[in-house]
Design brief:
Methyltransferase, Cobalt-precorrin-4 Transmethylase, Domain 2; 2 domains; 5-stranded mixed sheet; single chain; binds S-adenosyl-L-homocysteine; 262 residues; alpha/beta
């Protein structure tokens, strides 16, 4: 934490965790307390409203990431201490990207304003904690949002992850407008994985509406309507199993061999 209050401009990139105070890190809390201004998507700013009394708030709507980043960087260049908040971790599909993009475009000198990133608990950690131990071997995260990434790139990554037997965490799986991507992801995964592969669905982790469901790739199609933008999915690999409602990926492959390809 920067204790020199006279220092010019500071950008904190703060991950708020999944949504409960209990999973907000002490460092994130301290960064918010130390800030003059807080910038972020309205729902996240509301999430920490109790900590923000007396601070300048720049709450914006979804889809305004770059405008939000410009505003935050302007404030920091003007000498303010600015917290830019994201849910989960700011560096995982969060505000760190747009902030560094704006800083690069402005030929930032790497020093002023100072940038301090405060890591947060990402949705994949929250989801895994509620599901059991699904991430016990190599895993990857794939966002199904094709708003900023072309679908062909996403499909190629899904294919590679499926072929490579990674446990796959799906972020941004389905919205009101994007309803086909999850079905397409399921189709690609089924080319390499058994229909009985466990699938964990975690909605609103560590929030009031939290819902945890364990199904399999076969039945995922029927569950699709339940999946929304506050849901994270974890698709098991070839060794993942379900035991008494928990999703378990053992620490290693029992025979230390990849299953043969279908
Ligand atoms: N920076 C965030 C991810 C932002 S992308 C992080 O590190 O977690 C937004 C996606 O994150 C959502 O579509 C959803 O897939 C996931 N997500 C965020 N918060 C969640 C929560 N509380 N429960 C389940 N999924 C969540």
């Amino acid at each position: 934490m920067n204790n020199d209050k006279s220092h010019s401009g500071l950008l904190y990139l703060v991950g708020l965790g999944p949504g409960s105070d209990k999973v907000l890190t002490p460092a994130a809390r301290a960064a918010l307390e130390d800030s003059d201004a807080v910038v972020g998507f309205r729902a996240y700013v509301d999430q920490v409203a109790g900590l923000l009394e007396g601070k300048e708030l720049v709450a914006m709507e979804l889809g305004q990431e770059l405008e939000r980043a410009e505003r935050a960087v302007d404030l920091a260049y003007a000498g303010k201490r600015v917290a830019v908040v994201s849910s989960g971790d700011a560096g995982i599909y969060g505000m760190a990207g747009p902030i560094f993009k704006v800083l690069t475009d402005r030929d930032w000198n790497g020093e002023t304003p100072r940038v301090e990133t405060v890591p947060g608990v990402s949705a994949l950690q929250s989801a895994a904690a509620l599901l059991g131990s699904p991430l016990m071997q190599d895993f990857c995260a794939i966002s199904l949002s094709d708003l900023m990434t072309p679908w062909e790139a996403i499909a190629r990554r899904l294919e590679a992850a499926a072929w490579g037997d990674f446990v796959v965490v799906l972020y941004n799986p389905r919205s009101r407008r994007r309803t086909t991507q999850l079905l397409e992801a399921r189709r690609i995964l089924l080319e390499h994985r058994s229909p009985q592969t466990p699938v964990g669905m975690v909605k609103d982790a560590f929030r009031g509406e939290q819902r945890v469901t364990i199904t399999d790739l076969q039945s995922l199609e029927a569950h699709c309507p339940e999946v929304d933008m506050v849901t994270t999915l974890v698709i098991g690999n070839s060794t993942t199993y379900v035991h008494r409602g928990y999703m378990v990926t053992p620490r290693g492959y029992e025979e230390k061999r990849l299953p043969s390809r279908k």
